[in-house]
UniProtKB/TrEMBL annotation:
This is L-fucose mutarotase. Keywords: Isomerase. GO terms for biological process: fucose metabolic process. It comes from Nitratireductor aquibiodomus. One of its GO terms (molecular function) is L-fucose mutarotase activity. It comes from the Bacteria.
């Protein structure tokens, strides 16, 4: 165990988050997402909700402040302008935890899958609600004064 590190952040996941550079993307995916087939690097967090994983990831990873869309969700097929309840929860977590809170931008389903395949890694959660997927772009930490 480490002090100040969320206990759901496994050693493998911490390695991935640390290895990512500015502009790299990570997918937090629901239980139905084709995670392993989409991933260059893959971590399972079965039994843990996607919003809870988002909170843990954002507790250590800066969200990119140089782009308009550092957080992207999957657009609903039957209601492209709607927001699923799980995405509303994602937004609440981002607003509360992120160092650079940003509005989640929806992306068409198949475009989301394409973007996920280019991501640095996929975290497969136990989230059972549909559309419980979000892509995060990693930002930078501010320079510390000497």
């Amino acid at each position: 165990m480490l002090r100040g590190i969320d206990p759901i952040l496994s050693p493998d996941l911490l390695r991935i988050l640390r290895a990512m550079g500015h502009g790299d993307e990570i997918v937090i995916a629901d239980a139905n997402f084709p995670g392993e087939a989409s991933a260059r690097d893959f971590v399972r967090l079965d039994g843990i909700s996607a919003p809870r994983v988002l909170e843990a990831v954002l507790s250590v990873m800066p969200l990119d402040s140089f782009v308009d869309d550092p957080a992207i969700s999957m657009q609903m097929v039957d209601d492209p302008d709607g927001m699923p309840p799980v995405v509303a929860e994602f937004q609440t977590v981002i607003d509360r935890v992120a160092d650079n809170p940003a509005q989640i931008r929806p992306l068409e389903r198949f475009a989301f899958y394409d973007r996920a395949r280019d991501a640095f890694a996929v975290i497969q959660t136990g989230e059972r609600r549909f559309y419980g997927n979000v892509i995060l772009k990693k930002g930078v930490l501010p320079q510390e004064d000497a």
